[in-house]
Amino acid sequence: MKKNYLLLLITTLFFLNSYSQTCGFDYERSKLRQDPSYIQLEKVAEQRIQEAIEKRSLSKRSGAPIEVLTIPVVMHVLHLGENVGTGINISDAQIQSSINNLNQFYRGQTANSSLDFGVEFILAKRDPSNNATNGINRIDASNLAGYSDYGVNVQNSNGASYSDIVALSNWPQGDYFNIWIVSELDDNNGGFGYQGYAYFYNETSSNHGSVMMASVFGYDPGNTNGWGLNSNGDNGTVVHELGHYFHLHHTFKGDGDGSVCPADATVGTDSDGCADTVPHKRETSTCPTVNSCNNSANWVDNNTINNIMSYYKCTDRMTADQKTRVRAAMEGTSIVNSKAGIVPDPTYVAPVSVCTTNTSTYDGGSVAGILSVALNNVTFSSSSTYNDNGNIDKSANANNYFEINTENTNTINVGMFNGNHHQLGIWIDWNDDGDFNDNAEQQYLEEDITGGATIQHQITYPTNIPYGDYVRIRLITDLDDRYINNCACILIDSACYDSLQYGQSEDYALYIEPAAVSTWTGANTDWATTANWSSGAVPTVTDNVVIPNTATNQPIISSGTAAVANNVTIDANATLIVNGGGSLTMDGNLTNNGAFNIKSDAATNGSLIVKGTATGNVTYLRFVTANADISKAWHLISSPVNGHNIAGFLPGMAKNGTKRGIAPYINTNGVNAKWAYYSEGDTPGAFTNGKGYTLKLDHALIPNGIALDFVGTLNTNNAGVAITVNATGDQYNAIGNPYTSYIDGGTFLSNNSSGILAEPTIWLWDSKANSNVGEYITKNFANAYKIAPGQGFFVKALATGTVNLLEAMQTHSGGDTFLKQENRPEIKLSIKEGTTIKSAEIFYIENKTTGFDDGYDSSLFTGVSNPFAIYTQLVLDNKGKNLAIQTLPNSNYENMVVPVGINAESGKEITFSLNASNFTSDLKIFLEDSVTNTYTRLDEANRTYKITTTEALNGIGRFYLHTSRSSLDVKDISLENVSVFKTDASTLRITGLQNNSKTNVTLFNLMGKQVFNTSFQSNGVKDIALPKLATGVYVVKLKTDKGNLSKKIILE
After folding, report:
1. Which of 615, 817, 636 has its CA nearest to residue 716?
2. Residue 568 φ/ψ, nearest 5 degrees
């Protein structure tokens, strides 16, 4: 028979005090404790509470501000088909009145209780699928077996069971406090007997939340709203049941159903665990003045007689120890981190995964598992594989996840199962591609972890932090491989590990908080002034920056300012400027809807690095000089942006007939035609990314030089810019820096030398060198340098292929394009003829050799003719290669004689000079002239050596450089500087011989047989034509006026 509950509630309202109204908590708990696994869960929870209480005591937190813990609530109203506001289908207002009263009580805002627990309740605003909700889930339960006639069972068996109503409607207990509003309990017509019950909060227990009758849920003192509430509408049952949810026991715990006085010894058995309540027997619907368990003495205070967790009718408060216990039970739990009380995030997308681990199940043997994962006061508790039934995946939970602010230190704490030894891996899929194989994604991977240990790991971040995104964090554990003979356990090797034996994986979502937003306000134009920013601070690397068009002054990053930001947004009609010598590094993305100008001048360059993506055009203004002299003010450039059209520059370039002074380099063209100049009217299209071009301004139009405005998009492809180099013709290729920042030349050579370049060398054009005529500057690993934005340079290809200019090569550098970074002995040897100056360099570096050191010895640039040049050749194993840079050992100076070669026309006065640095004061540097038989010391200030050529010079043999701690003269000449090598298959070259020295050369095979002999009068260099000989190794013996010398050569 269906009952008229509204009539019954109204009828019984006047007789409520004569009925016994009780709580079903103890009875429900006793049923759960029949299961040993539940006892263990409760034991672990109590241990955690006691540990938290101890920590609170030690930290003396009484004066600290209280952190409010917010509990999202979902109401499952199990009505019988009534209209909303009628019978069991209680109104929204009735429900909200109860929530409001809960908040008043637990925040210390009721008339008789000012104790603030720092706990608040809110009706859920998002459901488990991230849809909006009001937190009230109304369900017609009239068809649920037994429910219409008997309600829900506690001790009876005629009505619906707890499992029945949970099956009808249930939201995840780690995200919501589930309250089921029911018609009656044990067929009590909504009046006497059990009013409700609750279960301890526990994320893994099968029983959770609270069941309460509609007749107790609401706050309406005096029942003025006609809701027909029990207990005069004081909401006391709801406050009471919430106490149980927070792990509070009845104050009379252990009274044997009222027959004995509690011993107050063991929490949960005969004690409520709170020292500021006293043992007593349960007494229902009364308010005695004496405590029957204390020889009928008066109560020592009101903490017990007025305690909500008793059955007395005069209850209105809780105690400080109960508050401590509530806080200890709930702080750091999953539910207080739940976002269910916040409106849904429309940007939420569940993290992806392209792999999963296999599932292991308990087979009665060993056990492994993760018991807890905690980060930033959020803890997800779990159990071993035995209780968890394998893997846990909560990564798609839109209501509960970890959060980090990357400006702070974020440490993850992983509690391991108590027994055995374990291994553990932690991964974070920062770029959300599901494979866990990218930058900084493997966070931790260790074995030999003791059972019961807590692993602490400080999270490390990738180069590109995904601010404002949800990503997956995965943990995998298994037994250590010490058990390999028993369990076939092997070491975890990846986040996709699929050989779990006794362990498990756990996946959670991790939210990276957005970078702080700092908006430009523009009191003046200086980026580095704090008053110009809405945040009151200059942006940091984690700040998102907005440049609006409303500011009076637009921002300028001045010379010497190294600005940083995460994302930068430039609004329409707004402007951002980076001046020469200033720089901006963005860890995130650029969105340019306005103007973004990066400037340079004759001395400095502005620099921009964007590590993320970029939308909108950027203007790079690269300064170039002008000169009326056709031989001066040439520049080797490359576009620092993508998409700028070459035709826009043609009108301002130098003229020669119809040709204009801008051209790419074609290495297969003739000697004097390698620069393929564009003509008036050409439509060459955009500059090729990473390609080098020569350029000269029309001095008549632009006499003072100009900053060329390269306009286009930034090159932000993570793969970098690839440019083809051809091993055709002279093998030289003009390429260039395609970025708005400097690039590291050493890193470029390290990444591109093998198999592609003939040698790890770049040649850059310095337009200011050689009295502004310019010359090619040679750079390798020995002389550290940076390549400026828009700077072109040459490389020599060994094989046709591609070189890559990677984003990772980008760097900021102020001042000159070429920067020395080491203090080591070095020599710059120069020759001058008129105003023309040429130089060669020698470096002395530890662990280098007197032979050819790839990457430290570099050839003279021969992509252009060199009628006037200076170079050196190897001290040992000389093969005739002319070197612009030679690197030697930083020791044994006296025994290293460096052959020096020059190219010069006849009849020219040539002046040698030298700049030496970082040598010890006792070391002297001499230039030997074997024609004049002189040694000239050049390392002293203002010392030079002059000659007038009587014939054209083209090679080595006359000049040598000596380093010595004593003076040298012609008597010190030896054969150490003599080199013997092949120039081709039939020519033997001998260099370093003294002029006018009689020399005999004999060639022997390895059997000792003489196969060739000749004599000649030396003039420093001698080429000898060899007869046709079999391939193999031969010994060359030289006899001179100064001694004898033997060398081995190989004929092929």
Report:
1. 615
2. -130, 125
> H-helix or E-strand containing 1004?
strand 998-1005
pLDDT tens digits along 320-363: 999 999 999 999 888 999 999 999 998 889 999 888 888 876 55
Residue 550: Cβ-neighbour burial (10 angstroms; 0-12, 13-18, 19+):
exposed
Q: Is the overall model pTM greater than 0.85, yes or no?
A: no
Residue 964 φ then ψ, to 5°: -150, 155
Distance, C-alpha 325 to centroid of its chain = 40
**What count of other Cβ atoms lies within 10 Å of the Cβ of residue 348?**
17
| CB-neighbour burial class of residue 1050 (10 A; exposed 0-12, middle 13-18, buried 19+) | exposed
Residue 251 phi/psi, 5° resolution?
A: -65, -20
Give me the count of residues in the chain.
1052
CA distance 1011 to 999: 17
Q: Where are the alpha helices (DSSP H) in 126-284?
A: 147-150, 162-168, 236-245
User: Which two structure tokens, joined as six digits, stand for 143?
Assistant: 């068809």
Q: Which residues, other chains included, contact 4 with Cβ-Cβ below 8 Å and sequence gap of 6+?
A: none
C-alpha 237/C-alpha 242 separation (Å) is 9
Predicted local confidence at residue 488, as pLDDT: 63
Which CATH number is 352-512 given? 2.70.50
Q: Whole-angstrom Cα distance, residue 38 to residue 396?
A: 27
Comparing CA positions, the residue from 258, 263, 259 lying closest to residue 278 is 263
If we measure between CA atoms, which residue out of 425, 518, 505, 409 comes closest to residue 461? 409
Helix (H) or strand (E) segment spanning residue 40: helix 36-59
Q: What angle do CA 836, 839, 842 make, to 5 degrees?
A: 170
Domain 352-512 identical in fold to domain 979-1051: no
Query: Which residue, chain included where needed, has tokens 């506690």?
Result: 154
Closest CA to 793 of 638, 675, 626: 638
| Ranges of each domain in the chain | 23-58+65-248+319-330, 260-317, 352-512, 822-972, 979-1051
Instruction: Give the Cα separation of 217 and 200 in Å (integer).
Output: 19
CA distance 202 to 209: 9
Reference 770, options 832, 819, 829; nearest CA is: 832
CATH topology for 979-1051? Immunoglobulin-like (2.60.40)
Sort strands 421-428 and 470-479 into parallel, antiparallel or unpaired.
Answer: antiparallel
pLDDT digits (tens, 9 = 90+) for 850-902: 999 999 999 999 999 999 999 999 998 888 899 999 999 999 998 899 999 99
pLDDT at 575 over 80: yes
Please name every residue paired with 72 in a beta bridge, in sequence order, or none if there are none.
Answer: 122
What pairs with residue 845 in β-bridges?
A: none
> Where are the alpha helices (H) located in 73-146, listed in sequence order?
92-106
**Burial of 552 by CB count in 10 Å (0-12 exposed, 13-18 middle, 19+ buried)?**
exposed
- For 863: left if phi > 0, alpha if psi spans -120 to 50, otherwise beta; the answer is alpha
Beta strands 517-519 and 544-547, pairing class = parallel
| Residue of 527, 547, 551 whose CA lies nearest to 538 | 527
Q: Are 16 and 177 in contact (CB under 8 A)?
A: no
Q: Which residue has the tokens 């990738």?
A: 462
pLDDT tens column, 609-659: 999 999 999 999 999 999 999 999 999 999 999 999 999 999 999 999 999
Nearest to 302 by CA among 286, 292, 289, 311: 289
**Of the candidates 78, 105, 70, which has an alpha carbon nearest to the alpha carbon of residue 235?**
105
Q: Residue 629 in contact with residue 762, Cβ under 8 Å?
A: no
Token pair recorded at residue 858: 């570099």
Strands 883-888 and 858-859: antiparallel
Integer Cα distance of 656 and 651 in angstroms: 12
User: What's domain 23-58+65-248+319-330's architecture?
Assistant: 3-Layer(aba) Sandwich (3.40)
